[in-house]
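Please, structure for the following, as tokens.
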Amino acid sequence: MRALDSFVLTVVISGVFFYVLYGVIRAAVRDGILQADERRLTHEEEAKAEP
């Protein structure tokens, strides 16, 4: 029974780790997309102001 408990604990800890990793990657991608949108908008505004 102890071997089964060890396996279940390993699976649960792995699941929690990968869920947190998923959240971190998702937040990083979201922030990168927002930064790219801001940079694109400022670049378009500068391009319109130059002529």
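The mean pLDDT is 92. The radius of gyration is 22 Å.
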